[in-house]
Structures are given as structure tokens and as C-alpha cells.
Amino acid sequence: MGPIEFAVSTPATDDVLRENIAHALSLGLPEADCKVKHLNLIANGPSARRLRLSSLEGHTMALNGSIDLFTKEGGYPTYWIGCDPQENLANLLIDAPDKTIYLVASKCHPKVFDRLWDRDVRLWHVNDIPIPDKRQVPCAVSVTICALLLAQRLGYRSVDVHGWDCCYENERHHAGHELATGLPATSQRIRIKVGGEDNADYTDPTARYFDSNPTWACEINDAKGVLPVVRWAGTEVKIHGPSMIAAILPEFAA
Hints:
About 3% of the residues have low confidence. The protein is an alpha/beta fold. A 7-stranded parallel beta sheet has the order 5-4-3-2-1-6-9, covered by helices on one side. The protein has 6 helices and 9 strands; from the N terminus they run αββαββαβαβββαβα. Helix 4 runs parallel beside helix 5. The protein has one domain.
């Protein structure tokens, strides 16, 4: 007995569907989902240091230490987001702007909430620990992926991501607060080849090479599964800069 084959088809021809759509559009009815909310997601990779924040249109969301880029320009992001449970995360919020909305995961250290006691804090939850009666965002390797999933829940359908590098740049691994966080960001260093001939030769001129680490490689593997689902669910994601993720997933490169 061979494999079962399933056939899925629309119960009408394409011509009938086009006629039905044309009729519906001619009625002038209001759209259920007509406004595309746009978000600039500023990750903490070193390439974010070259970003002109004042040139960005729409809302902004700073991840972890990238908030430092805004304060150095005398500005502030629309949102800041964090989900790491280490107390050192609070070190990134010493000069927390008072006009920013702080999206703080419930698993964050109490010192983070202490630091933001007089700021606009909104709570969200990650599903690595079950929390009864609370909506939870799927757990991911990085705050960047969690932020994309939360942004979709907040109604954003167009997201430009900056500084999501997953690779070193001139020995730097963060856009800001590199020494202040105390968070382990420089584990075993590895070299990753993208494209080119299918062999282990690291001198292939047709390939691109990135200095990374196992944690970032795992993050990329997560992104390969999550990004197509986010797009399927209606949010267009564009990754800017010399990102290794954009090199591996060129369909999401800006």
C-alpha cells in the first residue's frame, strides 16, 4: 500500500474568485484590517552603531543595550524590551528615558522592576515556565525572536530589524553597554561559511564568512523556523545590515 495523497483545492475557479473579489471591493465597505503598523526593531548587534536613529519612520523598539544608542543621541525609543533573568539586565537601564514604554518579561530579575519603578512598564510572559491564565509568547533562543513574536501580537505587520547580526564586527559583539551588562556574549568562537561551493574550504571566494559563536548559531537555527511562520501569519520582516541571518535567509534581507 502506497502513501496516502491529499488533494486540497478551492471550491471555485480562479476566475470566479476574482469576480467575487471585484464585487466585494465595489461595495465600498470598510476594511477589517486596513492599517499596517510599522516598527523598527533595534537589536544589540554592533552594526546598529552605524544607524541614524533620527532617520527612522514609525515606532521604535530597543532590545537590551541598544537603548544606549538612543540616549547618546538625546532621544528615546517608543519601547524597550527585555526578558533575560539576570540581575545585570538592570545595568542597561541606569538612564532609562521617562517617555519610553518598557516591555518587561515577568521572568526578569526584581532589580529590573526596581530600576523602572517610576516608568511606564508593561508586563509580558514567556512560555518556558507555565503561568496559569496568562497569554505567553513562545520561548526562543534570543530576545530578538521573542520581540518579533510580541510585536506581531501588538499589531505590527511591518518590521524593519537593525543590528541583528549574530556575528562579530571588528571584535565587537554589542552595539552598546558591552562592559556594563555582565551577560555572557563571547562564548567559543567559530567561523561560519555561507554560500559558495559545497565543501569545507574556507578560502572559497564565492562564499561569505562570519565570525560567530555557538549561541548565535543556535539563534540562527531558531530564526530559520520562526521567520517563515511570522511572515505566514501576516507580518513582513526585513533584516538590515551585514547580518549573518540575512545572508543565510536572503528572502528576509532588506
